[in-house]
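Regression test case RT-17, inverse folding.

Input:
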């Protein structure tokens, strides 16, 4: 079961410009920057209440987010639900007939274990499950 919305991932072409925009929108200069080598992304995160807005830009041309930007342009990329145990949630959802992108959790941003569900089984929305390490 999801505990809360951990973050919203927004795909952006250029992190610097989007970071300035979100500083204006949120009136907050407290930005956390992070590189996730594994996924080929650079991230700028803003805390909003209990959740995070995560601006995500490609850090290399073959990054999956680069493919997303090419196909769909900038915009909401994924919704992340925090759960107690990603592995057991994956098994539960798989048994409910939900298609998984990740069969097992891997390392993500914010020191979390993460896994993605396939948007074809979730109303076209890419959903990430995450769990604090
Ligand atoms: Zn995410």
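Golden output:
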């Amino acid at each position: 079961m999801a505990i809360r919305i951990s973050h919203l991932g927004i795909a952006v072409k250029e992190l610097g410009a989007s970071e300035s925009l979100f500083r204006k929108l949120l009136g907050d200069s407290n930005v956390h920057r992070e590189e996730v080598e594994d996924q080929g992304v650079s991230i700028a995160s803003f805390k909003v209440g209990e959740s995070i807005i995560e601006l995500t830009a490609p850090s290399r041309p073959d990054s999956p987010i680069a493919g997303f930007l090419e196909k769909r342009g900038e915009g909401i990329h994924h919704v992340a639900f925090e759960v107690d145990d990603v592995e057991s949630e994956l098994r539960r959802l798989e048994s409910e007939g939900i298609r998984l992108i990740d069969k097992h959790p891997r390392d993500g941003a914010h020191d979390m274990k993460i896994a993605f569900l396939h948007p074809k089984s979730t109303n076209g929305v890419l959903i990430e499950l995450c769990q604090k390490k």
